[in-house]
Amino acid sequence: MEELYIKDSATHRGVPIIRDESHEILIEYIKKTNPKHILEIGTAVGYSGMAIIKNCSGKLITIEHNSNLVKEATQNFKDAGLSERVQIINDDCLVQVALMVADDKYNEYFDFIFLDGPKAQYQNMIDGLMMLLKSGGTILIDNVLFRGYVDGSVKAPTKRFKTITKRLKSFIDDFMNRTDIKNAKLIELEDGMIVATKV
Predict the structure, then answer these.
(1) CB-side neighbour CA atoms (13 Å) of 193
(2) Coil, strand or helix at 141
(3) What's the maximum distance between 2 C-alpha atoms anywhere in the chain?
(4) What are the pLDDT digits (tens) for 74-102?
């Protein structure tokens, strides 16, 4: 019940959260893999993080740069009785990923990564994230088709979104051709997702 309230409240205020079908796909892969150590890039109000935690027995580290959203997500996790299994880091995701890579205790640590942060930074983050993912671990990446601009299902992007569209096209091409992944799949629904397993 609290998840529906969180979803409705965020949607009403224009806070970006995972879409309905993508939400179901996230839950599907969490249930399938039952990860123990999960990293989420982009906490927002905790809606996707709650879906992760409620559908596995693992613990979640989630990173969000917006301090107001961090406060809200912290309260949402607390109200849901999930606080003990969640660590929220209030910082820039690029900075935190770099720090984790530099910290030996995080090397090969996560067995599931959900990337739903700033789209323009996907390319800059992905090498670090793959270093943090265990062999056999799963990475799920949201919003790769960005409003239909990337795959052309919507006509040419507005001037405001040309750069991010170009970056995401490049990101998809580069990611799908990585040699450290297998079973990579582009899921072409809603805003698009990519799922892959680390070799």
Answers:
(1) 24
(2) strand
(3) 46
(4) 999 999 999 999 999 999 999 999 999 99
d(CA 130, CA 139): 8
Please choose, from the candidates 78, 42, 40, 73, the residue with its C-alpha nearest in 3D space to the C-alpha of residue 59: 40
Split into its structural domains, the chain has a count of 1
**Domain span at residue 157?**
2-198
CATH number, residue 164: 3.40.50.150
What gap in Å lies between CA 75 and CA 179, rounded to an integer? 41
Residues recorded for the chain? 199
**Amino acid present at 88:** I
Span 132-170, pLDDT tens digits = 999 999 999 999 987 555 555 656 656 667 777 888 999
The CA distance from 5 to 91, in Å, is 26
Range 127-132, long-range pairs (CB < 8 A, 24+ positions): 128/97, 128/98, 128/100, 128/101, 129/39, 129/41, 129/97, 130/178, 130/180, 130/181, 130/198, 131/101, 131/107, 132/39, 132/97, 132/100, 132/101, 132/106, 132/107, 132/108
Classify 63 as helix, strand or coil. Answer: strand
Closest of 95, 90, 89, 87 to residue 52, by C-alpha: 87
